[in-house]
Amino acid sequence: MLGRSQLVIHEKAGEIFKKSLAYAKKVGYLKGRKMKIVLDTTPIFGRGAVKDTYNLLADGIEKLMVALARREQMDTEHWARAHDLSRYLASSIKGTVEINWDNPSERKAFLLGIVADAERLLLRARAARKKCPKNSPEDQEITQAAELLSTLLAQDIDRTEDDVPSIKQSVAKDRIVSVHDVEERHGRKSQSARFDGHKAAIAVDTQSQLITAAQVLPGNSHDQSGALGLVKASEENSATSVELTIGDCAYGTGAIREEFKEADRPLVAKAPMIPRAEGRFTKDDFQVSPKSAMVQCPAGVRTSKSRPGAVAPGGGRYRNFVFPKNKCRSCPLAPHCVKHPGKDFRTFPVHPHEHLLRHARREHHTVRFKRLYRLRQVAEHRIARLAQLGMRQARYVGRIKTLFQLLLTATVANLTLIASREAARLIFVFLALLSSLRTRLRHSRIVQEVRRWTEGQRVLTNLILPAIAPQSGGWWPGL
Question: What is the CATH topology of the domain spanning 4-47+184-270+368-417?
Answer without folding.
Answer: Nucleotidyltransferase; domain 5 (3.30.420)
